Amino acid sequence: MKNIIQNINKAFDHRIRLGIMSVLMVNESADFNTLKELLGVTDGNLASHTKALEIENYILIEKQFIGKKPNTTYAATKDGKKAFRDHIDALEKLIRK
């Protein structure tokens, strides 16, 4: 019997990472405050989870200043979108079993 969880991606195991990718799959990009508010997380939690996704090359992080205020935006990469779709497909297959 084939291992039914083999295609579930560990990078998306945490609910915050799942939330980040979900937002970025339906939006071209999102800034730090938008993600923080939508997901209901602390600055530190969001920063650590976005960094983990960046290390996997699943998101791009762009930092800039708007006036004198820092602004960080996030966007899903092509690899990130594919990995997330594959993860969701694997979850759907698991549910159907």
Brief characterization of the structure:
Helices cover 54% and strands 19% of the residues. It has 4 helices and 3 strands.
SS class: alpha+beta
The spatial strand order of the largest sheet comes to: 1-3-2
Alpha-carbon distance between the two ends: 12 Å
Q: Please write the string of helix (H) and strand (E) elements.
A: HEHHEEH
What does this structure look like?
Helices cover 54% and strands 19% of the residues. The longest helix has 19 residues, at 78-96. The mean pLDDT is 93. The protein contains four helices and three strands. It is α+β, with helices and mostly antiparallel strands and 97 residues long. 19% of the residues are buried. Strands 1-3-2 form a three-stranded antiparallel sheet.
